[in-house]
Design goal:
One of its GO terms (biological process) is peptidoglycan biosynthetic process. Pathway: Cell wall biogenesis; peptidoglycan biosynthesis. The protein is mainly α. The chain has helices spanning about 1-5, 10-40, 45-85, 85-110, 115-120, 125-140, 140-160, 165-190, 190-205, 210-215, 230-260, 265-300, 305-330, 335-340, 350-360, 365-380, 385-410, 410-435, 440-470, 480-505, 505-525, 535.
C-alpha cells in the first residue's frame, strides 16, 4: 500500500490527471460538506459565524506556511535532492522547527486578542454571533500548526513527484469536518464544527507520515537559522508572504463588507466561492502543482527554452479544460446550486442569491485557473516580488470595486469585483512573465484558442437547446427533475465539446486522450503488482 502511494509520476499532464482526479473526489466531498451545512443551518447567521471564524486561523496558515512552501521550500528541496540528500533533510528539519515555533508564538498572541480582532473583522454581527465567532476561532487555532507540519510533508512528497497521497489528503480533511457536522454539532453546537476542523487537520497530517518517513526523514530538534538554504527559503518567503497577505486582505475585506449587507451574506459568498473553486482546484491548481517541480528544475538548469515550452503547454491544457466548465457554470448555475445545496433550511431565495453570485465568479474561472501556474513560473525563476506587487494591485482593485458594487448588486457585486480583479492580475502576470521568457508561444496558443472557441460556442448552443425543452418534461419542483435537466444538458454539452475538439484535431484533446490511456495502463500494472523499473525511480 505504501509503495502505491509513494509511486512517482513522470509527466506534468500525468501528474495533473492524478491531482485532478483526486481533487475532483475531494471537491465532491467538499460540496457534500457544504450541503450538510446548508441543510442544517441554511444561508443564515450560524453559518456566517463558522465562515467568519475561519478567517484568522486561515490567515496564519496561508501567510506562514503556504508562503514558505510555494515560494522557497520546494525549489530548494528539489535542488538539494539531486545534489545533497543529507542537506535536504537537514533543511526539512529546520523548516519544520522554525515555522512551528513562529506559528505557536503568533497563535498565542492572536488567541489573546481574538475578541478585539473579531469585532474589527465582522462589525455587522450581533453580540451572540460575535461571542460564537470568538469561541470557534480559538478552537480552530490548532489547525494552522497541524496543517503547517502537514504542508511541509506535502512539499517533500511533491518534490519526489509523489502526487497521489498528497492529492488525497484534502479528502480526509473534509471527512473530519463532516464528522464534526454530523456527530459533534448535535452535542456541542457550533463548536462541533470547529472540533471537526481540528480532527480533519490531524487526518491530513497522519496519512502522509508513513511515506514521509519511508523517504528517509528523521526528526532532529534543530534551528539552523544560519544555514544558507534556510536563509534562501526565508528570504523568498517574505515577498511571497506579502503577496498572500494581499489575498488574505481581499478575503478579510470581503468578510467585513458582507457582514454589513445582512444575515446570510457571508455564508452565500463562501458557498458560491466554494462551488466555483471546484473546477479551479481540479484544473488550475492541479496543473500548477504538477508543473512546479519541473519548472523549478528547468529554471535551475537555466534551460529557458524547455521551461517556456513546458509552461505554454500547461497553459494550453488549462484553457482547454476550463473553458467548457465556465459555460456549464454560467448556463446551469441555478441547477448546480439547487442540486448541491438545496436541502433542509436552504431556501429557494438562498438558491437564487447563491446562483447569481456564482455566475459572477464564473466570469473569471479562466483567469483564476491560470494565476496559480503563472505565479509558480515566477517562483521557479526566483522572482517572488513581481507576483506580490501584481497581487497588491489586484487587491486594491477588488476592494475599491467591492465598495462600489455592493451598493449596486449586494453580495453578488462582491463576486463581480473579485472576478474583475482576477482578470486584471492575470493580464499583468502574463505581460511581465513574457518579458522574462521572451515569448509564450502566443501564435500556437492562438490556434488552439480559436478551435476551443468554436467548440465552446457549439457546446453552449447545445446546452441551451437541451435545457429549455427538458424544463417542460421533468418536474422542476423536485430534486430529481432539476438534477436530470442539469446533468443531461451538461453531459451532452461536454460530449459535443469533446467531439468538436476531436474533429478539429485539437492538440490538447489528443494529448489528453494519450495521457488517459497511459495512466490507465500504468495503474493496471500497479494493481496487478507489475511495477516497472521506471515506476520505482
Amino acid at each position: 500500500m505504501i509503495n502505491l502511494f509513494s509511486n512517482q509520476t513522470k509527466t506534468i499532464t500525468g501528474a495533473a490527471i492524478i491531482l485532478g482526479a483526486a481533487s475532483f473526489a475531494s471537491r465532491l466531498i467538499g460540496i457534500f460538506r457544504d450541503r450538510i451545512f446548508a441543510h442544517i443551518f441554511g444561508a443564515g447567521a450560524e453559518l456566517d459565524v463558522y465562515f467568519a471564524a475561519f478567517r484568522v486561523p486561515d490567515l496564519i496558515y496561508n501567510l506562514i506556511i503556504v508562503g514558505a512552501l510555494s515560494a522557497g521550500f520546494i525549489p530548494v528541496f528539489t535542488k538539494l535532492l539531486a545534489k545533497d540528500k543529507k542537506e535536504a533533510w537537514l533543511v526539512t528539519n529546520g523548516i519544520i522547527n522554525i515555522l512551528g515555533l513562529i506559528i505557536i508564538l503568533l497563535t498565542a498572541i492572536l488567541y489573546y486578542f481574538t475578541p478585539q480582532i473579531t469585532r474589527l473583522l465582522v462589525p455587522g454581527f450581533t453580540e451572540p454571533q460575535l461571542t460564537a465567532t470568538i469561541s470557534l476561532t480559538r478552537i480552530m487555532f490548532l489547525s494552522p500548526l497541524i496543517l503547517g507540519l502537514s504542508s511541509v510533508v506535502s512539499g517533500v512528497l511533491q518534490s519526489y513527484r509523489c502526487f497521489l497521497l498528497y492529492a488525497l489528503t484534502p479528502i480526509l480533511y473534509n471527512l473530519g469536518i463532516i464528522f464534526g457536522a454530523l456527530f459533534l454539532v448535535p452535542r456541542y453546537g457550533l463548536k462541533g464544527l470547529a472540533y471537526g476542523v481540528v480532527i480533519g487537520a490531524l487526518l491530513h497530517l497522519g496519512a502522509q507520515l508513513p511515506v514521509f518517513f519511508k523517504y528517509g526523514f528523521k526528526y532532529k530538534p534543530t534551528l539552523p537559522f544560519k544555514n544558507k538554504n534556510i536563509k534562501e527559503i526565508l528570504g523568498t518567503m517574505i515577498p511571497r508572504t506579502l503577496g498572500l497577505a494581499t489575498t488574505q486582505l481581499n478575503l478579510t475585506v470581503i468578510t467585513f463588507l458582507a457582514s454589513t449587507i445582512g444575515a446570510g451574506s457571508v455564508a452565500v459568498f463562501n458557498l458560491a466561492n466554494n462551488i466555483q473553486h471546484f473546477p479551479i482546484g481540479i484544473i488550475g491548481i492541479s496543473f500548477a502543482i504538477a508543473a512546479f517541480p519541473t519548472l523549478s528544475q528547468l529554471a535551475g538548469e537555466d534551460n529557458m527554452k524547455q521551461l517556456t515550452e513546458s509552461l505554454t503547454h500547461t497553459i494550453r491544457q488549462i484553457i482547454f479544460f476550463i473553458t467548457p466548465l465556465t459555460i456549464i457554470f454560467l448556463l446551469l448555475r441555478a441547477q448546480i446550486v439547487r442540486v448541491l445545496l438545496g436541502s433542509g433550511n436552504f431556501s429557494w431565495s438562498d438558491t437564487i442569491l447563491t446562483s447569481n453570485t456564482l455566475a459572477f465568479f464564473a466570469l473569471s474561472l479562466g483567469a483564476q485557473s491560470l494565476i496559480p501556474l503563472l505565479v509558480r513560473a515566477f517562483f521557479a525563476l526566483k522572482d517572488t516580488w513581481t507576483p506580490f506587487l501584481i497581487g497588491l494591485i489586484g487587491s486594491l482593485i477588488n476592494i475599491i470595486a467591492g465598495l462600489y458594487l455592493k451598493e449596486k448588486l449586494g453580495i453578488s457585486g462582491l463576486a463581480l469585483a473579485f472576478s474583475f480583479s482576477m482578470t486584471v492580475q492575470v493580464a499583468f502576470l502574463w505581460f511581465l512573465l513574457r518579458q522574462k521568457t521572451g515569448s509564450l508561444n502566443e501564435s500556437a496558443m492562438l490556434q488552439s484558442i480559436n478551435k476551443i472557441s468554436v467548440a465552446t460556442i457549439v457546446m453552449a448552443l447545445f446546452v441551451q437547446l437541451i435545457k429549455t425543452p427538458l424544463a417542460n418534461i421533468v418536474d422542476m419542483n423536485k430534486l430529481w427533475g432539476i438534477m436530470t435537466q442539469g446533468a443531461a444538458a451538461g453531459i451532452a454539452g461536454l460530449l459535443i465539446y469533446a467531439l468538436i475538439c476531436k474533429l478539429l484535431n485539437l492538440e490538447e484533446m489528443n494529448q489528453f486522450q494519450a495521457s488517459l490511456k497511459h495512466k490507465f495502463v500504468k495503474l493496471t500494472h500497479i494493481t496487478r503488482g507489475e511495477i516497472t523499473e521506471a515506476d520505482e525511480i
